## 1
Amino acid sequence: MSARPILSRPAARMTVVLALGTAVAVAGCRRDDQDVRGGAVGDARLPDGAAVAVTDTTGLPTAGAIPRVAIGDLAGVGNNTLDATIPNPYAGDRAAAEAGEQHFVDMNCAACHGYDLKGGMGPDLTDTYWRYGGSPADIYKSIFEGRPQGMPAWGRALPSAEIWKIVTYIESKGGAFPPALADRGRQGDLGDKDTTAGSTLKGRNNVH
Amino acid sequence: MREIEQQRTVAPGTTRLAIALGLTALSAACGTKDNAGIHAASAATTRDVGGNVALPALLNRGAAWLPPGAGDGDWKMPSRDYGGTRYSPLTEVTTANASQLQLAWTFDDGESHYGHEMTPLVANNTMYIVSPFPNRAFAIDLTKPGGSVKWKFEPNPSPIAIGKACCDAVNRGAALYDGKLIYNLLDDHTVAVDAATGKELWRTKLANVEDGTTMTMAPLVVDGKVYVGNSGGEMGVSGWLAALDVNTGKELWRAYSVGPDSLVRIGADFHPFYPWLQGKNLGETTWPAGAWKHGAGAVWGWVTYDPDLKSIYYGTSNTGPWNADQRPGLNLWTSGVFARNASDGMAKWAFVFTPHNEWDYDGVNENILVDLPFPPGTSAGGAAGRTRKVMVQFNRNGFAYTIDRTTGEVLVAKPFGHENWASGIDPKTAMPIVVPEKHTVPPGRWVRDICPADVGVKDFEPSAFSPRTGLFYVSVQNVCMDYKGREVSYIAGTPYWGAQMTRHVGPGGDYGEFIAWDAATGKKVWGRPEKFLTYSGALVTGGDVAFYGTVDGRFNAVDARTGKLLWSRKLGSGIISAPMAYRGPDGHEYIAVAAGVGGGAMVTASQPGFPARGSSYYVFTLGANIPATPESGGGGQSNAVQTQGGKP
């Protein structure tokens, strides 16, 4: 584990099998190409000392490499039990978007994020900058759990379906990015050329 | 411009001068060794530089108007004196030499995320700075070359507070009193720190931040009491001002801006001037049942104090929610001003600038306390031909009010910038005469081009007053809005706002202007239009130099009598702080200002050329005062002769 990587061979993707101790055993049941967010609920039931397969995505030679334990890279994402790539059940539903807009106003979301969603006390929800992830599932989680610096946790006040409708409304205004781009968005790869057909994503090279 | 030559003929003024000098000498003798060492310089930098002195009695008000122990080179509270003038008696920098100002040293507090609205303080050769959230305090040793951090205090306020602050996690400064640095934390605590060591002495919780209350204002400290108030006019709070014991932090009393008389601390001694403000429990009965509880009237601006009348003066914020349709009535005592007994907090009088406020015109701007002679023939009613004790407020609503601070009578109320929501102030009732098409009730429809916008013709940025010129120096804003009222429900901890807006620049296309104002006649004496918003406080000095900044970061010195630009430097970020002047350990005059745009200035952030945020402090002095050679210490590679430059 402590050996330095040798950089003489062509970069290649590799899988390293580890026997990790109890402390990281929670990662045990994940597929080897999956990060923590894709894990099943109830990881704590895994037996101690389970073999953990993780993917090294550094592209560096295998020999002596230290494997990457996929833990998720965004605050609030690490404990996620909701796959960031799952679609909004109300995606594209106009009635749901309208209901979401009503919630957005009634719950005073508009006072912070703006009636045009362009931000104010709270951040702009129409761009591609999402501190806690910008896929529909990520946004659902931010609404449900709340976020530091002022975002209340609405999970206790609003039923799940109504939160999804607010997400639908945000999606309808060009905020959020498609579920399939969750990883790309997290890694800063939402350039214009990456956007899917018909997407309202603005890309990242915005001039103000 | 008035020129009143009476300093050699009015005996009482002469007596007060003698008393003032006696006290100054006494405090110098009993003061720190640093002060004692610069006595000669002190005389040199406060000598009369000529020119007419308009109001000599105000020039020599005496020690009662200053925090205890404050010398002429000190700056121990944000407005320097209890009257809120932001006048420095220092005279080394003059209209003749201001062009030679050079950067002496800089400092950065590292909190560039949030706007810098404070004023640095100086006493005992130490500069004190409070950062925006997380409200770190720094003491900077001015005897060390370029300043060096003597101590740093990290109060670690709750981060929840960030999201409860409507308009940036700002702080407007601290107060130095009795060896303590006292200021408010964004999470609703007032804290006192030993000014010598940076050790916390006490911390008092004033409110629950989770309900949407924050604290951003600078405390006023007088006679052993610390006066603090809340922010949260957009969060459905009820506004209050509290008095704390300076030694223990214990809360002595709290006076609300809304509610029954018992909460507002209104009793038998309450005598508002106007009949529409007279009656029982108006803070409750001028609202729909219970609406006052979330009616705002927060106290996030400035508190001033008259040591002769023993009164404190402060304004109350906008009315909540902004959507006035949900609160029919006059909505007292929001969007107004209180005069209170400084000792027990009981109200003496109150006035409301914008009753049933439909436009977010807060009343919290500074109330500057001066005694003004009113020339015969002025419009100021019974005041004409007499000198009156007044308070002057440049209100958000666009009118500059000159009010008798003993009685609460409005003597002068004139527009000091562009406004179109009111055709004037009724001379009998002092109520605004609202232009019918600018009403925002009923809600749910766009009302176009209301001037000023919510940020007002002037916001919190404090004005200055020079007793030498008799004029006020004011940053004026030229922003208008399209406004649509929205129904809103109260959800604790979220905004209770109820308005949708877009803002645009007013007539002429210049966002800002810096003006000199005659408060006795209600006239602008001169003005300097600025392309960018002027959102900084003002400073005026005994050298007749006035200082202000713009949100694109220009720090300007102008002739206080003519408005002529004397000097300008572009700083690293926009200026929304208030400059101050102090005497350094070397006996020379220094001008300090923070550059860190944010707060309400961000309403113009889409203007091309708008700068990035910042967190730097800049200190200027005359070039001759800056050592000619690099500071010693470090490398020491040069064998060049070390000269002392202007240092004594």
## 2
Amino acid sequence: MSTSTVTIGLLSFAHTHAETYAALLRDRGDVELVTCDPGPHAAGELRGAEAAAAWGVEHVGSVEELLARGLDAVVVASENARHRELVELALDAGCHVLCEKPLATSRDDAAAMRTAVERSGKFLMVAYPVRFSSAFGQLRDQVAQGRLGQLLSVRGANNGKLPTSRSWFTDPALAGGGALVDHVVHLADLLDVLTGGAQALTVSAVGNSLLHPGAAAETAGLVAITYPGGLVATFDCSWSEPESAPSWGGLSLTAAGTGGTVAVDVFGSKVRGLVSSSGLPVELAYGPDLDEAMLDTFLGAVRSGSAPQPDLEVGARTLSVVLAAQESYRTGRTVAVRPV
Amino acid sequence: MGRLERVQNTPLRIGLVGAGGIAGCHLPHLARLGAEVVVFSEAGAEELVARHGTGRVVGSLEELLAAVDVVDVITPTPTHTAVVTRALEAGKDVICEKPMARTADDAAALADLAERLGRRLYPAHVVRYFPEYAALHAAVHRGDLGELAVLRFTRSGAYPTRTPWFADVEASGGIVLDQMVHDIDIATWLAGPVVSVSAVSTHSAPGAGDGGEPAAAAHVLLTHAGGAVSQVNGFWGPAHLQFTTSFSVTGTAGSLEHSSAAERAVVTDLGAGPSDDDGAGALVPDTDPLDDPYFLELRELVAALRDGSTPRITAREGAEAVRVANAALEAARTGTTIRLIDRGARA
């Protein structure tokens, strides 16, 4: 049973992770992959049948054609605002779903997706790869074992470059916002693990677009969050890594409690050096592929049929933090989180 | 004869008021600067003077004020206003440990009083003298980073348990006013006036730690007038916690970051030994004795008092740090975002 082939559809190449998923799923002996990247496609971006050919994966012309294959599961990697439509189609076609983060860009969309999960009896997993990191796993275990005592504070930074390979990332209508939606969800997911799924209580957010004045949404954001039980957290979700930086950015987290502190730098392991001619730094990042670890969990769940984590409810709780952060940034007030 | 000429031609006489935990970072440096130091404290003055082999103890603040030109106030925060006021009214220039006062109104009143009396008042914001922060400020001032956009500061160390007033938020302002006021001041120094403040804070439940050790944490978000945003994180934890700081500052032309834990000149792994008992739980960070920021600070402030030069910190800036820190306390307490009116507009 565990070696049987599962059939997986990859819906949309809008997200840059689609290429990673395509390559990982293509190279597995236990997966039969078919893809579909419905248009319209932004000019100048490698999309659709052309992309599939470049990646060496099968591509079909329509979502209906893909779903008519009777697949076991579907990976949705569309623009954030288009998750709902594809997720509903996939679930209603009897497929389990791995949905790129964030789950959705609105409360209504998330609620509709919850209904679709309940109606279909299939599961939805949200693509939060960082929680699969061993470094974060050590922190999770130390918190669970009580080594930190009463957990009081978490500060996280998830910084990256302004996303430029896909134009929709900086289009608030399709992305659901800017840096606040793109990176807050990752850190909110890690807090979700550490708190055992606690719903955040309040969020304050500040931001600006000083680093990228032409951007349509905020490119820098700082948030402060309260959780039940006296835990306070703060995130830096800014696209503050310059385009010229030697690596894409990173994600670090420091947890502090009455027992002490634990600092985790998830993508921090690098071989470092210099280019003699320019004096510019070289960083060779190394470490396990977290997308691969996440897909392992997803494919295992597709085989067993038992719903994996992080599930739709994690996606809903983390979305509630993002929506509160956006409201706080917009209004300049501290906002009580309304559960999604 | 003018007052400055007089003090230049005679040894500077400095009155140190207080003999608590930070006294060891003041008394020896004042002595090294050639000052005659007179010490008054409700407790610990004799021990302090004996420990450092310098200084003369007197029995009252009046006696101290009668014997000195300059007063260095290192008493607990809730007493700053009364002691500084008396020193200014006695015609002394004053150096005062941070925070300058417990409340924004008190701090502003001290700055006003100094101005009215023509006396100088310098709050001891020593982090401006730590070489990594001085280097950061110089780079920002030169324009190396362009326009600042995002700033992060962290400060983490052992919970101060030796004297109860530190942890008493009413008395000291707790972690926000005692510890995080340093980075609030640095953020303002670098990115300019703060227009809004939000904050979250927490404290351990009684008996939550091993042996009931307390811990406290707070996160403060600042929006500066120019649009830059700052995040200031503070943590007081168990006694074994090393004192660590970090910053990360990004502007339109570049970024600078520092971590005290990463930039250690000496890394030892010697097993348990007789020299191991002093490091953990320190109330002040490790510093290079050849580049001691407390010495650099007192040298600059004393020089300013002697020759009229301008030091890198003013009473107004000290008062502003207290105002922003108190806004953070209010933001955390009420769960709201606090908007600060312009200092100029208020006057």
## 3
Amino acid sequence: MNDRAMNRRDVLKACLAAPLQSAAFQGKSKVVIARDPLLRGPGHSIDQPHLLLMLDRALQSFYDRDSAIEAWKRVVKPGEVVGLKVNCLAGRGNSTSVVLVDAICERLQQAGVSRHHIVIWDRLNQDLESAGFRVSEWPDRIRYMGNDSSGYESELSVYGSAGSLMSQNLTRVCDTVINLPVLKDHGIAGVTLALKSMFGAIHNPNKYHVNVGDPYVADVYMLPPIRQKVRLHICDAITAQYEGGPSYMPQWIWPYNGLIVARDPVALDYTGWQIIEQKRAEKGMKTLKELRREPAYIATAADAQHRLGTNDPQWIERVEV
Amino acid sequence: MRRRNPFAALIAVCAVSCGSRLDPNQLFPKTGDVPGWSQKGAPRTFEAAVLWRYLDGDAERYVQAGVVRTFTADYRHTDQIEAVADIHVMRNAAGARRILESESADGSQPLSLGDAGRHYGSSLIFRRGRYFVRLVAYQEAPQMPQDLVDLGRAIEARLR
């Protein structure tokens, strides 16, 4: 800026150019990465007590609380119906882990959420079953159900390039949602993390994969039920995939043994993308940009039209515990 | 200028309609056909238009390469290893080649199966004519690479 005094127009320009998180998020967006090298027991199975400890560390750090239950009480309130949006596209190979979901359910109940107020959901019952969840709609238990059980709204929700019918799991069944994506590569969109995982809440995700998912991923996340109800993201980075996604490709997975927690889906996606790029570099693979599948939708989600969070590393507080 | 083959359209239509007559039960080995392997449940079929229900996010790659339909079957090996076999029926052999070549060869070994193939340890891919086949195991075991090849060979023998 030159040395003349700022007038009102300059002030306005400066405000508009300021980091976007000033509108959507006050201060830096916190992203907590918790890892445990001892997470796996014999035969690569996940050790449940270690996982619970890692989850507690992540949540306590994120909410700056001494106890895990106190942290969870910041997320949910008794009486709310809490949806856990899992990502089961990759079947049992690389979907949201059953053991992680069990651990979250345990903590939710300890935080005062009744078990019949917990709903685990994704696109299809078949997807849930493939990932190792048992579909169940008993009203007095934890429910596991796909959108094909709950149904979709009959009226389109529209934002920008997106026009979709929303899952009633999101719009009617749940009061709030915790998003549980998986850390993985995506052959078209670059990566699929917190933002893109919400494609599982709409009836027509197949329409939004052109142009590396940009601006569709950001536009879909702008649909009001998603923006209003998703309260927290816990990315399952226990087993991550750096190539060949979203389908499970065992040759390109690695045991990251971690969880990534954030409220800002853009900051989480940016952070997860960098982890995947780092792994690709270690393996001598090309960057996603070189392969023409850089996830441009992450920047779009942060732009002035969307303001879903920040992709500016200077405004992301990355905490490793 | 290259002359168009007047029978090309007819051949393409035949290829697609032949695909519709394929019986997945004939393509996948049944329990006991390959030592150690048992088939779990019935094979499922996904037409190109709804392949995204099975491979959401990955289906477009197959559609662009001319997939007609996909058959998939679950397997189990001696009650320890779970695996899935996908047979993608493409419009022509070029489509099957396109899919195979679009995948990274990083960490693979060439596999003498069908017209071309690769082995990645816990998974393998190969193409034969207009078929593209993928086998994926969900657990690791020392003998798994060879067991997977045995299953692959049995499938390949049925793709006539």
## 4
Amino acid sequence: MSGAPLLEVEGLTKTFRMRRRLGRRQSDVVRAVDGISFEVHEGETLGLVGESGSGKSTTGYCVLQLLKPTSGSVRFNGRELTGISRAELRATRRELQIVFQDPYSSLDPRLTVEQIVVDPLEVHRVGDRASRRRRVQELLELVGIEPSHAQRYPHEFSGGQRQRIGIARALALDPKLLVCDEPVSALDVSIQAQILNLLNDLQERLGLAYLFIAHDLAVVRAVSDRIAVMRRGKIVEVGDADEVYARPQHPYTKALLAAVPVADPRRMREERERRRAIRAAADATADAAAP
Amino acid sequence: MALLEVTDLRTQFFTRHGRVHAVDGVSFTLDVGRVLGVVGESGCGKSVTALSLMGLLPPRQAAIVGGSVRYDGRELTALGRRTFEDLRGREIAMIFQDSMTSLNPTLSIGEQIVEPLRRHLGMTRRDARRRAVELLEQVEIPNSARRLDDYPHNYSGGMRQRVMIAIAIACRPKLLIADEPTTALDVTVQASVLDLLHDLQREYEMALVLITHDMGVVAEMADEVLVMYAGQVVEQAPAVELFDRPEHPYTEALLAALPQIEIAHARKQRLAAIPGRPPSLLEPPPVCRFAPRCAHAVDGDRCLAEMPELREIRPGHLVRTFHPSSERRSAPVEVGR
């Protein structure tokens, strides 16, 4: 880890206005992300974990400026991203890319694999046709897709292979940071392991940093150097991955960890009551903190 | 005592491209008050097995083409539609993964719980309503009397799944079939719904068939486990035995591929991915279906020449492979713990 962080998020807040309900003068405002701060350093993975509605995906979209933050700052490579012009943002996007959750809907079914992966290169006018073609071949090889399959369409590939294609597209412009939004949650366990290994390998080879967003604590653990736990728009705990998992401090982190079923029938039976107690304790603190 | 006895069940889907052998010779027995976990990845046939048992296969697209399903001494595959309807909901109940599509959005929660009570138990409207409140209390829905007249969209995902459970247990069924009942839920909600299922299963002495892709959920809930791959049972054993001494290369690989939350330096460890993907079930050839992905199959051995039978390798432990871990020359692979 070098001195200045690659990504520096400070006091990030994103509110959504709900549709006005009948008979109410004002519409409700939901604070999806509520003043959070964190950093991602070059070449590291920060795992952002939380349950549905915790604001983890909204955070990812705000970092990418796909959603406009309500307040707070997002600095990438020393440069403030909030409020910059579209042209400037476009230049930054080369270094800041996203891998989506659903490998079925995130690839255009009418385009060949080559057209999908070459798209960012064309948008950013990188190289000439021949060099772009070579780059696509190189990228497919890198993610474990047979380069000779470049003329095939997404439906000819399985979910795991499609996710590889999505990763190749994200890597096309040599980004420094990938925001991975639940990249393996649609995949079966045996395929999920292939993709997680691939992400780890790519990081090692290319020096990428990941903001890895997921609800599955075991998956997050397999790729993260540091972990941030989100609940109701706030980060309740952040720290070294081994430390957070071995010695969780916040009752909610404890409850999350205690809720994960482990593949050990003896322990699951022995610890049933202990797990229940930990969850009850977290519920009590949540109710006390609820608005 | 065997409550459910499934023998050589075969279910096929009829497609433009041919017959898909979705369930291909599945057998098991389930005793009164026991929990059977059926585990496997997408397309392995676990959900189609459940639909076959319940007589809920999509008509004309799929059918049971062989085998038998005996429930409490009665052959279910030969049952008429009306008789099956009397049985379903009353003695055999089912919970699905997606509570939003399983519940009727146009009926209040109360009406949906009252309906089976009146249909199957002949209760009066008043009695059924009173019982519905009790059931919602039992599945831990706060202010149950007041929430009876709410509609499904007023409930959260976890609460809707509790309502599904309330409907399923309304007539005190002897057999409950739950297909991925917690897959759509957050992990803390899943934990409490599993606790609820566990408690109710004990209290009502229901037999439970729990279908899931999650080895952790199986470990938590099941007495006995069936591992399915490509339409077949590849391994069956009591839960503790299965996790302690998995025999089938697929079971071993599945356990090894799981990311763990409790090991130090998880970041530095490679996950044991399973290469390739499951075979097509369109007229599959009579050879071992896991062979192309198996670490132990070698060129020229029997795996690609014949189909291994499901055999009892230890008392109560069945496996379908030519390369069970306890018969390999090298020491059995340590996995899963």
